[in-house]
Amino acid sequence: MSDNYLLEKHGFKMQKKYGQNFLTDVRIPSRIADGCTDFDVSEGKTAKSLILEIGPGAGILTKELAKRFTKVLAVEIDEELIPILAESLADFDNITVINQDVMKVELEPLLSQYRQFNGELLPVSVCANLPYYITTPVLMKLLEQYGQFSFITVMVQKEVARRLCAKPSTEEYGAITAAIGLYGKAAKLFDVSAGNFNPKPKVDSSVVKISLYSPEKYTKQQIEKTSKVIKAAFSMRRKTLVNTLMSLGGTKYNTKESLTELMTEMFGKATVRGEELSTEQFVELAERLF
Ligand code: SAM
Known about the structure:
Helices cover 37% and strands 21% of the residues. The radius of gyration is 21 Å and the shape is elongated.
């Protein structure tokens, strides 16, 4: 039974408020799921991993993930999709669907429970065609609230993908780019044109894979301090760091003069802006400030 047939049979209406643009051609989810693995699925192998999928929709990507990984845990906010998923995923015994808002889920207890497998703990990764209205908050929640993902592979709007993978001193580089660098490295896998979705969105998409550092590159404390500096640095993009960092409380440098001196010492000029600094430089700056 095709997903379209099931959606029609259940009288399902796409909900704009949930960012519902479903993939229509199975070749795309198959490529996304392949992007999460390091082997050819035609070899009949499955990777020993738990995959967290956010927003399974009618299950087109969920099925491809279930063919390649030990277990799939799919979190879907729209209760209308739950009976549809039960039918479309009926052939798989390694998928669990839960009806929840991913922004309200407590990741640690949920994943600790589902990653148990035959007395072992499975590595955990994320794969999702993300609802566009919450791309950045979802990514930040995943990175901030669960330190144990191997990778996060997500389809996002093309411009967002450019931001996630940007280099310093480019127009696309922003707070989210620098913040991702605290946890891992982002790389674009491939583009997907708008015609592959129903309903067709206004813009094209890209699939991005964030490979998390293992072991972690920075300590919890470094991440906390640096995140504050990144937030302040990009709060007013056009302003220099001397100006934006004045608003940061609790630092050793709280006057214009002392910040000017620090910027000149660290970066060779007093007029340096946040968009010019790599994640590593933000970490060094946070170490000096706090
Ligand atoms: N994975 C499906 C596909 O590729 O065809 C659907 C992707 S669609 C872009 C986004 C999905 O995320 C929808 O099923 C939507 O209902 C779900 N969703 C939206 N907001 C959510 C949230 N806060 N928590 C969990 N799921 C959410």
